[in-house]
Each structure stands twice: as structure tokens, then as C-alpha cells.
Write a structure and sequence with these properties.
This is MarR family transcriptional regulator. It comes from Streptomyces luteireticuli. The chain is α+β, with helices and mostly antiparallel strands. It has two domains: 107 residues; 87 residues, no CATH class. Helix content is 53%, strand content 8%. It contains eight helices and five strands; from the N terminus they run αααααβββαββαα. α1 packs parallel to α6, α3 runs antiparallel to α4 and α5 packs across α6.
Length: 229
């Protein structure tokens, strides 16, 4: 009698967010989380669907790489296969984006419940995360996924780049929001949430620490130095 095996899981761009919001690892969520808490069954189903869609993207991306790596003779038939595979890859990416949007919708009740405990002040953020929040604040940013390499990039209108890991942490904490109605390969606009703007405002309004100069210090040491920015 063969044992039942859990389907293999594809790495998705939302795994870290799912684990942070639900408090479950992906493995545990698939195996037992579905029975543990109301609402988790929907999260598991949505994550399974996203993992399946990710496998579809990986399949066509790998096929496209094989077609273009010099294995086949360059002729009209090859061009037709490449065109067909690119179209299939675009369809797979669009389906993957739809599944990601559905997963995010299932996470919203958990995020709303946890948000009071997750929203930090500026002083609580990592320096890199606070810098990313400041960079996004003026004009937003855009999250894109490279269709072939599957790499995520976040850029602002001024050309500043935000690391994918920093963006994920800001999104998990409810400080930024992206338009999930648009496909990743064309770009999803990113803006600060009310919590993100409040985080920056609280930091700017915090009074600077007062430093006292010992009276016994030499006069040269007491001379005020210009603030470097």
C-alpha cells in the first residue's frame, strides 16, 4: 500500500508574506494548517493554485531557454515555436498574477487582524527599510517581474532601486500597497499606505536627542560642528 504524498510546492513570491501573516511555515500550512483555523483552508487552496501557476511559468520559461540556446537550427519553424512559446509564457504569467491576487485577498482578514501589532514606528524599522520607505514616499514606485529571469525589481520614478526583500518587509507590515489588478510583467504601482505615511510623520516629528557638552571640555571641542547630510 503506497503512502499518500503531498504535492511538491513551487517557490512563490508570496511565501514569506504568507508565513509572516499566518504564523505557519508553508510546509506546515499545506500539511495541517488547513484544519487548524478558520480561513486557513482558503489560504492553502489559494497558495496551492499559485504554486501550480508558478510551475506553468517555469515550464514555458525553461522551454523558451532551450529553444534559444543554440540546440535547434535557425529556421522559420524555430521562429514559430519561439513565438508560440512566448505567447504561452505570457498567458501563464497572467494566470499566475491572477492566482497571486486571489491569495492576497485570502490573506487580508489575517492582515487586518494583525496590523495593530505589525505597524512599526520609523525607529523600529531597519535602516534599509526606512530608506526604502523614504524613497517610495514622493512619487511611489513600480514592481516588475522580468518575464524570462523571473527576477523582481522595484524602482522609483527618480531611478532609485528598492531591494525585493525590503519591499516584502514593508508590504508585510502594511506600510506599502501595490496594485495587484495589474500583471507583474507590465508593472504594479506601489504607494504608501496610511500606516506608512504615519510612520514617516511620527519619525519626522520626534524631537532630536539633546546632547550636553561637559563644562571641562576644551573650547575647541565645544565649538558647534556643521551637520553633514
Amino acid at each position: 500500500m503506497s503512502a499518500t504524498r503531498t504535492p511538491s510546492k513551487a517557490l512563490t513570491s508570496l511565501d514569506a508574506r504568507v508565513e509572516s501573516v499566518t504564523g505557519w511555515s508553508i510546509d506546515a500550512l499545506w500539511e495541517t494548517g488547513v484544519h487548524a483555523e478558520e480561513g486557513l483552508a482558503d489560504v492553502v487552496a489559494a497558495h496551492r493554485a499559485l504554486a501550480d501557476a508558478e510551475r506553468g511559468v517555469t515550464f514555458y520559461r525553461t522551454l523558451l531557454h532551450r529553444l534559444s540556446n543554440g540546440e535547434f537550427e535557425v529556421e522559420d519553424a524555430l521562429f514559430q515555436r519561439i513565438d508560440r512559446t512566448v505567447a504561452q509564457l505570457q498567458d501563464a504569467a497572467a494566470q499566475r498574477d491572477e492566482r497571486a491576487a486571489e491569495l492576497l485577498r485570502t490573506l487580508r482578514p489575517f492582515e487586518a487582524r494583525n496590523r495593530p501589532h505589525l505597524t512599526p514606528t520609523g525607529a523600529d524599522l531597519l535602516q534599509a527599510d526606512y530608506a526604502a520607505l523614504v524613497a517610495i514616499a514622493p512619487g511611489g514606485a513600480v514592481l516588475r517581474e522580468h518575464l524570462l529571469t523571473h527576477r523582481m525589481s522595484v524602482t522609483t520614478p527618480s531611478g532609485n532601486r528598492v531591494t525585493w526583500s525590503a519591499f516584502q518587509r514593508l508590504e508585510t507590515q502594511g506600510l506599502v500597497n501595490r496594485d495587484i489588478t495589474r500583471p507583474l510583467h507590465t508593472g504594479q504601482p506601489i504607494t504608501l499606505t496610511d500606516a506608512g505615511r504615519a510612520c514617516l510623520t511620527r519619525t519626522r516629528q520626534s524631537p532630536p536627542a539633546v546632547q550636553t557638552v561637559p563644562t571641562t571640555a576644551p573650547a575647541a571641542a565645544q565649538t558647534a560642528q556643521p551637520c553633514r547630510r
